[in-house]
Amino acid sequence: MLVLGIYSIVFLTIVMGIAITAKKNSKLELFGIALFLPVLTYVCLSLLK
């Protein structure tokens, strides 16, 4: 589960990097955030168990 947490942090960094570089395309940014939030929530819940 710790590995999954590390992967989620790396994924978040990549998503934020894409969001910053693609500021012109707000749809892509929102899609990235919407895609990541459920994953982050799931990982947090898994780590708490």
**What's the shape?**
elongated
Number of helices: 2
Approximate helicity band: over 70%
Number of domains: 1
Largest sheet: none
Mean pLDDT: 74
Contiguous runs where pLDDT drops below 50 for at least 5 residues: none
Distance between the termini: 10 Å
| Strand/helix succession | HH
Secondary structure class reads: mainly alpha
Task: Give the DSSP E fraction (strand runs of 2 or more residues).
Answer: under 5%
Please give the radius of gyration in angstroms: 12 Å
Instruction: Tell me the total number of β-strands.
Output: 0
Helix-strand blueprint:
Elements: H1 2-21, H2 26-48
Keywords: Membrane, Transmembrane, Transmembrane helix
Transmembrane segments: 6-23, 30-48
What does this structure look like?
With 49 residues, the chain is mostly helical. It has one domain (2-48). Helix content is 88%, strand content 0%. It is built from two helices and no strands. The chain has helices spanning 2-21, 26-48. The relative contact order is 0.18.
Short overview:
Keywords: Membrane, Transmembrane, Transmembrane helix. The chain has 49 residues and is an all-alpha fold.
